[in-house]
Amino acid sequence: MSVILDLTRIVQTAADAESPSAQVSVIVDSIQQYLGLDVCSLYLADERGDMALLASHGLNLGSVGGIRIPAGKGLVGLVAQSRHPINIADAAQHPAFYSIRETKEERYSSFFGVPIVRGGVVIGVLVAQSKEARELSAEESAVLVTLGSQLALVVSTESIWQEINHSTAPVLTGIKGAPGIGIGLVRLCDEDDLYSVSDGQCRDIDAALQEWQELVKTVLADVKREQAGLSELLSQDVAAVFDAYCLLLSDPSLVNGVSQLIRDGVHLPGALKKVIHQHADVFLAMDDPYLRARHEDIRHLGNKLYSAWRGLRATGSEELPTTRTVLVGSQVSVSDIARIPSEYLAGIVCFQGSNLSHTAVLANALGVPAVMGVGEIRGLYNQDELVVDGNTAKVIVRPTPSVLVEYEQILKAQQQLKGELQELRDLPAQTVDGTKICLYANSGLLADISPGLQAGAEGLGLYRTEIPFMVSETFPSEEEQLAVYRQILEAYDTKPVHMRVLDIGGDKPLPYFPIREENPALGWRGIRFCLDNSSLFMSQIRAMLRASEGRENLRIMLPMVGNTSEIIEFHTLLDDAITQLAEEGIHVLRPPVGIMVEVPSAISQLRSWRHLLDFISIGSNDLSQYLLALDRNNPRVARSYDHVHPAVLHEIARVIEIAQSTDLPFSVCGEMSSDPIAVLLLLGLGVRTLSMSAAQLPKIKWLLRQISIDNAKAIVEEALLLNDAMHIRKLVADRLYVLGAGEILW
Ligand code: PEP
Ligand code: MG
Asked: For ligand 1, is residue 669 a contact (CB within 6 Å)?
């Protein structure tokens, strides 16, 4: 029993090691200690089958991985080839003995080697040796054989090779923040951490209250200055992410909350910490990933206020970089980004954070590669060289010259592509055979509007009205909605704007209207929620109609439709709203009405709904989620969620066939529209209108201009014969390379 426990402990310690090199050292040290033999070594097979000595307790190792025994050579090679343990008392006398000068192995007589086999392949050999010329006992052999089989499960061979091949270059994997490759020198963004402030009493309450008011004013001015600086690079609207800070700084619950605590006798930083904590926790507890990510804004702001209070961040006093810089920190704030001139900002790496944080939003808008959530990088210093690979969410610390050369080549190719994309802005979105494709933008924030127009969008294909509802503190009034909708319709002038009615519930909860359900994805959401809350719904419909007064570019789209009655009820409400407004003297046109095709049950009913609809848009995100029964936001099953799954493609083909045969205009507005592989398949299936985030538009336009509809048709025909999303991806990727458009996948 105790042997089993000891072995479990060794395997567990190896599994818990903090790095691949630590893992192999732990293995050999703990085995040597346990068996009391003179030497324990671990060899791992490289891609040629040579055995590299990666760790040893007892042998002279030289450089890690530097000592290699050619495939099939020596006793180690024999163990690997035979896949059996070898137990010999006098190794030097064995015909296969192979002496390596550096290790001074000849000092040891006995040799016991056991293969480490994973999935039928020998990945390494574990060796124990002693000076005494004796065979290992049956018990000792059993221990090593057992360890060999268990280690096969925990040794992370891939990471070990990565570490060796890049020598001093650990590779860290995080979450994709913004695409692209960036190479630069580290600039650590260590904010003063408000959370480390300890409790304290306020000695002079009046002075502290005064100080707090001054602080808010100073930081507000600071944020506005940073925002103005950034607006020169970006559209005014994108720089509006700073508005979140400004709003918080004017939020009475924050400002008055701190004042109240000071009045209660808490010292200023303590009061600030408490209030920021409370605000951040509210967001952190939210199920919706977008809103949860907002807690980072609040923490940044708290740290910013604290820094200003300590006087450590004297405005504009920092030295500006003079070389390509990668911002690295626990959380890189929007202000940190604003401080670096754009020509020097090569990348962003956050130890924490998600792809929905404002840091990621801004990085995307600025076109700066970003990787989020890599976990803390230990031993990283200012001026260390770093590669940020936003395409694969990898960060390479202190890359070796060969790795660097490789990335510099990719970077060069990407810059060339970027230059070509810029030139595309005013060129038509059409395939090489001249087929015009209509490209719309998706939006949900006022901040997205002008990038969409700048990228050449021919309209808004999906305006997610729930986003303003989600960032508000209460249900926005009809007047508040009217102001937002009017701005959008005006910005797009005569171009169509497809406003989707409130799609809350499921993965999009409202903070002020919690819906507790066992199964929210299948619960009270989208059109079901709207129709059950008709007065709220009516105010939204009225606001949309009023915003369209004197215009013709409003389209209304219904989310999550699965029943005929839902469309009919909406038409009745729309008619009522138009009549009400007419009675109030506001005369508006009845806008075209369509639905999202995202609930699978809608598909078979589409034909019978033709007379109720002016258009449809395929919501590939939810359609895939419901067809595949895979939660689109659950990282545990994210691997299997793929919108090019054959089941999704076949259903989309069915929707298109129905739409074409009934002359029903259709588009796709889910993430498929910005995935080059999916776009090729959609074109082949007959899609001619795609709606995507503004940032993706130029890339997709470039792709369209490289291919013909015949190419796409031939590819989709082949793809529909395959029964696995991965094979479909591979097929389309291969074809893209053959067509000379493979670089879109980098
Ligand atoms: C979709 O489901 O594909 C879609 C576009 O809507 P959302 O992502 O907002 O649910
Ligand atoms: Mg949806």
From this structure: yes
